[in-house]
Design a protein that fits this description.
Blueprint (H helix, E strand, L loop, with lengths): L9 E11 L2 E10 L38 E8 L22 E8 L16 E5 L2 E11 L7 E5 L5 E5 L8 E8 L6 E13 L2 E6 L1 E5 L13 E3 L3 E10 L2 E5 L4 E5 L3 E10 L2 E2 L3 E7 L9 E4 L4 E7 L8 E15 L3 H27 L5 H24 L3 E8 L3 E6 L2 H5 L1
Parallel strand pairs: 4-12, 5-14, 16-24
Antiparallel strand pairs: 1-2, 1-3, 4-6, 6-9, 7-10, 8-9, 10-11, 10-14, 12-13, 15-17, 17-21, 18-22, 19-20, 19-22, 22-23, 22-24
Helix pairs in contact: 1-2
Length: 419
């Protein structure tokens, strides 16, 4: 009902109908209520102590085991009803045998913000070259389905790839990374979030939904953020501007480490902007390796080292996708190339105005109009240049820094190999 757009909070009471000495008796069996969010939702409308999106619903999705044959009564009511009666509210109830399945919803990662920031941003998938954009994906598991789910995003523009971290068995959260190559050409396409799993021995493919804010809210204390599901997922690459910072692993494609050991991964740092400070603290994206201790990288050095320390975390042997992530305050300049272009345009307009002024001095008065137009052109270009210079002045922005995906192969320890 609530998912059909009604202002309702359905609840169901299941009772067994028995015949007693005094006639019909009702025995409570179960009360079914909301679909809980698989993860904790922020207690505010922005990223505070959890994501600002609620993947749950006031509707009902529940499993009920009937242990005794007989007659049962199912009573549906609206907790928002009270004394009201709204005949326009609609309800759809389905009672069926268990059908294991899953649904997906994802959104651009909202990192916990700094020092009282309270913005709730819409975060369109508009990529700069060399950017890796993280997405949090939530799984709604149904009717006992608990197997792993493989994530991907399909239909991406040229030069853009996706890497989905497998949602482990029984877990409800996953990470999807969308990466634009440094030289990815300008382009746009409509993409689809996709999850693949095996149910009863068959591959099942489910398209997921994406969520975003209806509009960006700079301060959630002065405007109420309004999240929504989006109908289509546009993914674009600007083709000109590049990310302020790109972090990637150097060398081999797969990094091997044995259980109980640590591995150092050479990291290449490509810095295209000035930053506050010269260090960035990084953590690890990975359902299984998220407990990896954090470490710092230096922005003054092109070469750094990332550390995966299996003495601190326990995992089973196998292949794992990870990425290192953190945040940095970049000195961002908006379209600095426009300043150069307009400076050249201003120089050309000034030269044309000077040439026209010489003609006016030597010719009839009819050329006076040409001089006015030339002077007006100079003034207009100067105005545009001043605006471009103002926009291009460095200003601090908090940028999410995510490395390109890295594959870790965890090998058994030596004693286990001998067994």
């Amino acid at each position: 009902s609530e998912r059909l757009g009604n202002p309702t909070d359905p609840t169901i009471v299941v009772q067994q109908v028995k015949q007693g000495e005094n006639g019909e008796e009702l025995v409570d069996v179960a009360e079914l209520t909301d679909i809980a969010s698989p993860i904790k939702v922020s207690s505010n409308g922005y990223s505070y102590d959890g994501p600002p999106y609620n993947a749950g619903s006031a509707d009902i999705l529940a499993e009920l085991t009937i242990k005794e044959s007989g007659t049962y009564r199912v009573q549906l009511s609206d907790l928002f009803g009270g004394t009201r009666s709204v005949p326009t509210n609609t309800y759809r109830m389905v009672i069926r045998k268990a059908q294991p399945d899953f649904a997906l919803v994802g959104w651009a990662q909202h990192m916990t913000l700094r020092n009282g920031d309270r913005n709730a941003l819409s975060k369109p998938i508009a990529l700069r070259g060399g950017t890796t954009m993280p997405f949090e994906v939530i799984v709604i598991r149904r009717d006992g389905f608990n197997d792993p789910i493989h994530l991907t995003m399909e239909g991406l523009p040229e030069g853009v790839t996706s890497t989905g971290f497998t949602v482990p068995a029984g877990k409800s959260t996953g990470i999807l990374l969308v990466t634009a190559e440094a030289d990815a050409p300008r382009g746009v396409s409509m993409a689809t979030l996709v999850g693949r799993a095996e149910i009863d021995g068959k591959e099942v493919i489910r398209n997921g939904h994406m969520a975003s804010m209806s509009w960006p809210v700079p301060d959630a204390w002065s405007a109420i953020p309004r999240p929504r599901l989006v109908g289509v997922v546009p993914v674009s690459v600007c083709g000109e501007e590049q990310a302020p910072l790109t972090v990637s692993a150097e060398g081999q494609e797969v990094w091997e480490v044995k259980l109980g050991q640590r591995i150092e991964i050479p990291l290449k740092i490509e810095k295209r902007s000035e930053f506050q400070g010269n260090k960035v603290s990084l953590k690890t994206y990975s359902p299984e390796l998220s407990g990896n201790p954090g470490f710092d990288i230096s922005l003054d050095d092109e070469k750094n080292v990332g550390v995966v320390d299996l003495t601190k975390i326990k995992v089973a042997p196998g292949d794992y996708e990870i990425a290192f992530y953190g945040s940095a305050v970049a000195k961002y300049r908006d379209n600095p190339n426009a300043v150069t272009i307009l400076e050249q345009a201003l120089k050309q307009a000034q030269e044309e105005a000077e040439a026209t002024a010489k003609e006016v001095a030597q010719a009839e008065e009819s050329t006076e109009e040409r001089k006015k137009r030339a002077d007006a052109a100079v003034a207009e270009v100067q105005k545009q240049l001043n605006a471009a210079v103002a926009r291009a002045k460095p200003k601090d922005i908090v940028d999410i820094v995510v490395s390109s995906p890295i594959t870790i192969r965890v090998q058994p320890s030596e004693p286990e190999q001998e067994k």
